[in-house]
Structure formats: C-alpha cells, structure tokens
C-alpha cells in the first residue's frame, strides 16, 4: 500500500472489517493503533483481564469494552481477532477463536510448551479458520526487499547468511524468568526470518552463549550473548548473533551471499545528519529502542493480514511457522548445554 | 514526542483540542489524518466548497460536515482551524478565523498578492490570535537536527550554505499557470529554511533559470531548473538549486559549512538494502514522490502547533515568515528577468 | 594500468623513456617519484636554480644534475621534460623545450599573463611538439569515472553541475600575493573539469566572493570563499564553490544531474572505520591535506602522458585547455568586481 | 609516515638499509617494489632458484643477482633479508639468516609442519636476531585503526567479534593441494588479527565448512566456504567466515562490539562514484582482486619492519604469532572433521 494511497483511502468501497483485540498491554496498544489507522478495519472490542487497561484503550479508539473473552468470540460484530495477551493464555484464546470460527492473528509463541502448541495447531487446522502468527519482522520493508531479492535469484544459490539481532537494553530479571530464554524470546523471530529467506529449514544447530552483560541471567539458565550456526539442507551455512544490550542502539541486520552476489539489509539511520569536524564525521546513530526499529512492521503486518482475509491464498506467517522457529530454539537451548551441534526435530508435523 | 509515548498516549490527562479543517483536497486529507492520530486533538468539522469531498473525509474520521465557513468559525466546538483550501481563499479564511478569535494554521502562501498578504498579517496581529504558516519542512527531523547543530555553533560562523530541492516529476501546465512560479511555489519553503537555519535574512538574490525540462513553462514566465545565490548580511553565501523533475526520485538536501565544520542533512534512503554483484553495488534509491519524502513532517508540524497553542511563546513559523519567504521569491523572479543580483525588499514590516 | 600489472611490470619489453625534470620543489619531487616508479620511465636529469635542491632530488633517484636548462633541452639523453618550476618561468621553459623538439608536460598556468600564454601556445604549436598542461585532477579515478558516465549518457542531457573545491588550510599571505587569485589558483582546475565533463565551454560567469577566513586577502584583491555560476551554451547551469579553509579536511566533490539521472563523485574516506556509541556513529573523516586527496592523480597523469607520447592521438589536457580555464577565471575576477554576470572571452584561438 | 613526508624524504639523514630478497615470484616482486620505494631502504640483492626471474627483478631495481642463498646471508652488504620463496623453503632460509646474524621478515607460514616450525622459532630465538612474520594485514590502515580503538577501550569490554574474509576468485586445484587448507592458507591471517585485536588467544574452535563452490576441493580434504566460532578466555565470542569466491570482489571486514560500543572496519570502495537512476543507486563496487584490497599493507609492513630494526622494542608480528595462528588453524581442521568444538593446543611454547 503506497503512502499516497493511504491518504486517499477515504474512498475505499469495500466493507470495513471489525477487528477485536485481546490484550491491552504495550503490544495490544500497538495493534489497536494499527487497526484504527487502517482504512479497511475498525477496532470493535477490547478485552483484558485488567479491565481498566481495556477501558482506556477502547475509549481512545471508540471501541467497546468486552467483559469476557466470550463477549468477543461470541459476538456477531467481530470479524477477526488479534491475540496480544500474556503468552500463557495464547493457546486457550486461539482455540476459543477457532471454535467460534473467528480468524485470528496471534502474537508468538503460540504456547509455552511444544506439545500444547502442536495440539492447538491441530485444533485450529480442523476448525478451518485462517490463523496467523505474529512474525511481524517479515513485514519490515528492508527484510521483505531482501527476501524478494534472494527469491528472485539475485544472489544465486545461497551460500552464507548472517543475521544480527541486538537489543538496546537488557530486559528485567523478572522478564527473563518468564521469557523462555534468549533463543526463544528474540531468537525465534530470526530463526523464522532465516527459514523464510532461505526457503528451507536447518537440520542442525550449534549455539554458543555466555552471560557477559548480566551474570544473574545464568540463574535462569539463560544467556545474554549468543552466536548460532545453522546448517541448511542445501549446504548453506547460517550465522546468527544475539545480544541483550548494545551500547549503541537497536541493531538488526541481515546479509545473504551466494554464487551470484550478496544482498544486505543495513541498519537504518533514522536521522541521517552528519557533522564533519576535524578528522572525523559524526553521524546520528541507530534507533535507540527496539520498538522504533520495527514500528513500521505492525501496520504492514495488519495490512497483510487483511489481504489474507480478503484474498484466500495470500501468504501470511502460519501457526506451523511458529512451531518451526520454536523447534530450532529448542535444539539451540540443548546445544547451549551440550556445547555440540544438535539435530533439529520437526516431528510435530500436524 | 517519542514513538513509544505515542503508543502510551491513551492515558493523556489534558483536555482534547477540537480542530476543524477547511479544505478536503489532498493536503486537507493529510491534515485530517494527523489530527485524528494525535493523542491531544480531534477532528471536529470539515468544510469544503466541494461538499462530497468534505463528507467523505468527515465520515472517515467521525467528524461533522460544516455547511459553510461560518459553521466552523462560529462554532463553540472548534478550538483551532487548519486552512488547507485553495490559495486564493487563504486570506479571507484567515481573516474570518481571526475575527472569530480562532487560532489557525494556514498552508502557505497566505495570499496570492503581497499587499493583500501584508494586510492579512496586520489584521490577524490586531486580532491577537495565534496564527501559523505551514512551513512544514522545519519539522523534518533531519532539517531540525541540522538547524539545532548550526544554532549550537557546531559549524562555527556560517560561511556557505547549499540547499537542494528537486521534485520527482513536473507539475501539469495548469498547475504551473497558477503556481506563482517555481521560486514561489517550491522555493519559498527553502528560502524559509535558509533564513531559519542561518538566523538572518538575505539582502540580495541572484537567480538563474531555464526551461530544460518543459519548454512550455516559459509561456507562463516560469523556469523548471534554477540556481539561486543569496548574500547574507554576515557575508555568508547561500546557494539553492531547484528542479521540477529528476530522473531519480525526490531529492532534498541541505548542507552548511562554517569556521568550525560542516553539517549535512543527507537524502534519506527509505529501504536501505544493497545488492553487491560484480564490480557494482546496487542500492535502493530515494523516495520516489515528494510526499513520501516529507510525510513525517505533517504530524510533527501538528504536534508543534498543539505545543504552541498550549504553551504560549513556543516557536512556530509565523505569518511574517511567510512574507519574508515571498519577498525573497519576488526579488528572485525579478533577477530571473534582469540576470543581475537584485536587492530584497522587506519593507512590509507590520 | 591495473595494480597487478604494475607489480608485473618488470617484463615490459618497450624502450624506457628518459624524462628530465625542471623544478625540484614540492611538486617537482612528486613528479620525480612518479617518473622513478613508472615501469616505462627513468628520471634522467634534474635542473633547478636552487642547485642543492636539484642535487638532493637527483641523488635520491639516481639521476644526473643539470647545471642549466640547456643541459636538459640540449641533451640527447632527454626524451621528454616535466616543467615544475615557478610559474613565471613556465613560458620560457616551454618555448625552450619546443625549440629543442622535446615534448613536455607543464604545470599550470602556462604563463602569468594571457598574452604571453597565447604566444607560447602558438610557438609550441608551430614547433609541433606534444605539450600537455598539468590538469592532474582529470586523472583522479573518481572524476574520470564520473566523466565517463556523463559521456556515455548515463545522466542523459546535462542540466545541473555542482563542483566543490575546499582546501584544509589557507595559504600564506605571501602565496596569495603571487597566486593570481583564488579563481585562477585553485579555480582553474575546476573550470577545466567543468568544461571537460560537460563537453562545452561556458558563455557567462557570475562570481560572488568574500573574505570570511582571512580579511587580509582582500588587500590583494582576493577572496577566500566564493560561489560561481557558469551558464553553458546547452542551457545547463553549473555551480562551483571554493573555500581556502575548511575545518574538516580537504573536500572535493562533483555531481552532475540531467534528464536521465544523477552521478556524483563522493569525498573519499581514506580510513573507513566507524565507531558506534550511544546515539551516534563516529567515522574517520576526509583527507586532511589537499595533497593526500589527489596524490594518486600524479602517477596516473604521468602514465597518461607516456601513453600520449607512445600513441599519438590519445587524449591529454592540451595547452589550449589551460587558456580556456584561465579565460573563465579572468571573467570571474571581473564579475567579482562588478557583481554581475560577465561574458567569457575565448578570442585567443590560436 | 605521512604521505607528504614520503615526498620530502630526500632529506633523510640516517644510513640506508641494504635489504636483500629471497624469492622473485609475485610476492617477491611486491616486496622488491616496497624496498625500492622506501626512503630508508635499498634493494641489495635478489636470489631465486629461477635465475631469470631473479635477474629481471634485480635489473628493474638496480640490484645485484645472487647466485646462491649463501651469497645473500654471507654478504656484508646485506643488512636484512625478506623471505618470499616457496613455503617449503621458509624454515631453512630462516635458519640460514639466523646463523648469519641477519634480521629477516618471512612470509607466513614459517614451515609446512608444526614441529619444524617450532624448531625454527627456537633456533632463531637462540641466535638472537630480529625476526618477523608477514602478517601484513595488521598494517592495513583500517585494521590498525580498529585495533587501536579496541585497545583504547572505545568499545569497552569485548563481547563479540566478526571477521569476514572472502576472495574474489577460487585458487586452482593445484594451489589448493599445496595450500594446507583454507583455514591455514587464508585463515591464519584472520586468526592472527582476531588474537591481536582481542589481546587474547582462543581456547576452543568450532569450524563448519562445505564445498559449495568447487566440489573437487573436497578431494584434498579442503572446504571453500567456512564459518568458525572461537571462544575467548574472557568469554567473548568470535565469528569468522571465509569464502574462496564471491561474485562481488574481495570482501574483508571486521567488527568488534562490547560493553561500550561497536567498531567496524568497512569494506573500502576504491572509486566512490554513484549513479542515481530511477528507484536505484548504482555505486562502484569493492576491490575486484585480493591484492588491490591489501596492496597498501606491504609498504606499511616494510616501514614497520624498518622501525623495528632501528628501534628495538617496537612491535612487529613475531614468529611465535605465526605458531599461534597455525595452532588455531590445526584445531579448526580437526573440528571440520569431528563437527564439534575442539580445544586449541598452544603447547609449543618455546
């Protein structure tokens, strides 16, 4: 959707989709804003176990407050649901949506445990509703352009991939405790990107990590700095590196090289102003917060979800993609402990 | 306003400002979207002589359609007005707002003729309402950062300035006919930026131009390619160059050098993905449309206007700044004809 | 000549050219080093009125010291001469070379006065020797690539050109006194580049200048900061800006835009290392000295001179190109005084 | 040594060092050119088992041809020796130099087998002559600047390092057969850089590789594409990636991040000219040949060797540094086979 088109959207002739939201925390508010701004969607209702949060958010966008999940899934007014509640409730809400025949977009991960997640995927599949997982980074304009270049053969046969994901500031200990670990929490987004870009799933992972930033993360079996190697069936080698804290902003980069060339998604410079003084050039730096870096992926993700709803068959990250990324993370967690490459088990095929 | 703050804006405690809009064309729609998205403003009413345009826009944002200008200026519901109608109606609407005691933000220029514009400025000043002119480029994050660097002495005493303003595609002949000429139409934004950044007004202008892109522009006494030299009272020299059509997107750059260094606002690369093949690197290019390049200035301009309304004394481009830019453009038009440097007459001081 | 070729040059089969040098100052030493390093040339003899300078330089490169100019022009050992003596001796030495049938490469300008220079060009032409002028910047790899791109139509019909030439540090007053003025001293190199790249000679020049760096330059009728506008017969507009002192190194850039695109030669970053800290990126800056910036042009110029000697008809900057650049500078000096565009007189055609 | 200083070098007062050369192949010719160009050195004699190569090279630089190695080591004329012969002769020549009390600079590796190399290091140490190994990349201006930044604490405590080394074109099968493998041949330079920059030696290496470019390399137990992980005693993680062939020139990059920031040495763009057309920017690419990329390291290496000769105690890569890099490569070769992290054995300490 071009920018000018967005200004000219007032004349859109199609019906408006009523989208309801479960979860009024930070990411819930991000989704609410996207739904309100998109020309084809309307925020219908908001549910959160924290009722005051739900009320404030609903008020801001002229939506209804739902007193229970059932008021959302059971409502004829709701055409689709966005699930942005706490991780441990994702599976249950997803199944409720499926039962009610409501298509949904669920923040990742689908569940805290693999077996439960697999069960949910089966359940949703049988219900036959369109269900997407929130791999929003696929909608980053730069990653999408890079994926397109690789897909169109611009770099030939892929030989090496490098993905960098580094946050500006470490999460709290409390967050780490519930996060499932760096490889799942942040990693799964990038494992998904690696598979999506390469068009194949790795067979083996070697993960090396350390607590160089916050030693207490080790108490929860976690690391704050990691380097990962994935082996692809094609023979391609894929390196990822993760850090919970840079001293220079949010750093996300991807590069892919192959028999025909190399493509890279550089880190964006949001204010490209440079000062030349003496023997140096001082440039404004990277986005200072992870959200600023990927802010634009949320409206793009919603737009793609709407496209997928309106045009069956359009590509959108599926629940199974979430299982794949989690399987890679699981094997990576094992490799962190064994300090050996570990095979990756995708035997959940549903 | 930080991005995260915008997501968290639901909790804003202050009263909401009711902003009404005159003009539902392209720029009017841009303003409407900004007013709807800003946490502190609400689109109250829309007026346009084209009633169906007003209705469509009002409907999209849940606003009222006004049947006449008076229904906006006379309404207790309207706290402020944005004037985005056709140029020849700006003065009259501005005076109506002033008369009704409504603060307003008016797209430039304030009027088609200098005398009328001066008259309007006097009228508004006597009425004592806050009135801003739409020099939105001052709110470009890059230009603002550059202005700040110069203001803080990062480049020392200013010696040379270079401003580049080149559109991706030429306007229609019909547009050119009414535009007042390239130096007024596009130029006045950059004359304003030059004065604002330098902190002084030029005394003399030399303008050289040609019709290299569209010979028929000459029929209206216009040029499509121009190079301008401004002499500043401090002795600094300022070059501007304008083009109605590049073959490579919308190109806006500013650089300032002085006794202590040089600062430049580079052209943003919206999708910074690069492909390395053979002996070349192929990078995605510039914004392809002028609006994409400056899209982000509109919400920033509205935010600053709200700040100025809530906190008297905050800087916002004033109507007089519009007169200054037009005076430079007038002298530039004269120089185009005489092919000589021409003095600039600011004897409108009101 | 590729770099690897230079290493493999030991096997060159052709005869070695004996090149002698007049002038053992800084630029003379630069030429001596180039002659010694080129696989096809040998430094034969060195003459300088300062005999000890000549001796030291000759010793360093295993060359003969000449006791007089005649010992160079009269020697069967000398195949070609490089003239790098003081400006006021260029004409006389050039004529002596011509008389002796020795091809030569002369540092610019050919003479301190136009009439004398024209006379010398005629004299040399009648003698029929190959004579080049030291417009070494044409051999800058970047400028040469840019010229090639323009010549091959990559930017379509040229509409605008911008040339920036800024030195890191101002010359001494004593130098300024003899320099002929900024527009001649530094400017003529860039006037030549403009003509060479555009493939046409400007008809009119407007020059605006000021002493913003060193007020005492005004005592010699000179400026230290200048902005120039050239009008080309095709209608293209060309801006140049000169500064005698930046606070950020030696800044030389050229850009050309036209109906089909835009090409730019960016300022090289000799040590491209960047430090990311906090919200900034600190990059190593520009060359800090003009010589470092253009050092590589001297061996490339010599290589092209050798090519021209060995293959008649190869392009090399001719003495007439020096007259053209001086004519533009002369008109520019006039414009500085009249503050008006001035026509350029090329009526020296020889 | 600044560039201008090099032009002014004729006045150097110290004695000239007579440097002799063993080996007149490509790298020998590179060294010869450096020795001839350096103000403080003179190419004294050249020896090669291919006498005609030695003669041609000696003639080009006015040096003597030595009929045997003894004519070099036994000559009072030779102050120092550069060893650039075939790898299997390095050890013997190094010992001959040591025996004769001649300081030397030896191309890496010191020997084809670890035990022999260790033996040679001991021998040389006992002889007490200054002996350097040709880790020329340490003298790359960019790598040196990056090392300096890390050493001065600009990035704080090092957490992650990334080194990229990719050649433009694969070597011949014949070369691969004798090369010792990609990890030794190219890798050892970068293992050395990693240790030098980090200021510590890795304890463990994991190497993953594949023949994606030339399957026949596998016949010699070699890979053409590799990703390496080094664990440092400090906990820092270091990734290296090697490729025998890019489709986009010679790509060498290093980046280091830590608790205080990140520093990167970007790939140089030798001709920084860019063409803007449509929605793309086409920039000239990387150096197309590995030698062009590192050409400037050879004169810098020689200058540092001269410094070390004249000022005992100055840092210069020592023979032991060569053993360290080879030990890392050895463990890496083992890891390629076991597909497990392998400890690195430095038990050669001499």
Structural class of chain A: alpha/beta
Q: Look at the structure and name the CATH superfamily of the largest domain in chain A.
A: Dihydrodipicolinate Reductase, domain 2
- Measured by DSSP, the beta-strand proportion of chain A falls in 15-25%
Q: Give the mean pLDDT of chain A.
A: 94
Question: Would you give the CATH topology of the largest domain in chain A?
Answer: Dihydrodipicolinate Reductase, domain 2
Identify the overall geometry of chain A.
globular
Discrete helix count of chain A: 13
Topology:
The structure is a homotetramer of 350-residue chains.
Chain A: H1 3-7, E1 17-22, H2 26-37, E2 41-47, H3 51-61, E3 64-65, H4 69-73, E4 80-83, H5 90-100, E5 104-106, H6 114-127, E6 131-133, H7 141-151, E7 158-166, H8 173-179, H9 182-185, H10 187-198, E8 204-210, E9 225-231, E10 237-243, E11 251-258, E12 261-265, E13 273-277, E14 280-284, H11 290-294, H12 297-310, H13 319-338, E15 342-343
Parallel strand pairs in A: 1-2, 1-4, 2-3, 4-5, 5-6, 7-10
Antiparallel strand pairs in A: 7-11, 8-9, 8-15, 9-10, 11-12, 13-14
Helix pairs in contact in A: 5-6, 6-13, 7-10, 10-13
